[in-house]
Structures are given as C-alpha cells and as structure tokens.
Amino acid sequence: MEDTLKSIQDFFYQIWTLVLTKHSQGVYNTICLVVLLSLPLLVLIITLVLCCHCCCCRHANRKTKKRKHLSNNDDLWISVKTGPMTPDRESRPD
C-alpha cells in the first residue's frame, strides 16, 4: 500500500515539476499546459452532467407515462356491438 502511495506522489510531483519548468519557459507553454491538464476534468464534468440529466429525465418520463396511462384508461377498451354484422363481414372469401 505504501509503495502505491509513493508512486502516486511521485507521479504528481513529476507533473508539478513539468508545470514549473514550462512556466519558466514562457506564458504560451503555461496556457497549453492549463488547457491540456483541464481536458480530463472537463470530460469528467460533462459525463457527470449527462448522467444526471439522463437519470432525471428517465425519472420524469416515468411520472408522465403513469399519468397518461391513468388518464387514457378508457381508450384501451374495445367496444362490443351486440347487433348483427353487415353482410360483407359475415361471409369471408376463402
């Protein structure tokens, strides 16, 4: 466990050293580093927003479907006519 922690600390130390080196080389390199290092964070934020949006929309759609189902309950019934059928429906061509 300590070896893993040490390797993680070394990784972030190397990134920090790279940032300081590029910053001392010029402003353009600093801007490029900021953009490159912020891209994974941007992807993470967009993924979280999309997941939350999909979950909320799915939850909202379930509520509206239940309401529609309850209000349109009469539309599901087929009316039965007890009167005689018309002659064209009584005989079926084989």
UniProtKB/TrEMBL annotation:
> Per its UniProt entry, which superkingdom is the organism in?
Eukaryota
Keywords, ordered alphabetically: Membrane, Transmembrane, Transmembrane helix
Its source organism is Cynoglossus semilaevis (Tongue sole)
Its lineage reads: Eukaryota, Metazoa, Chordata, Craniata, Vertebrata
Its protein name is KIAA0040
* Protein's UniProt keywords contain Membrane: yes
Q: Which residues cross the membrane?
A: 27-57
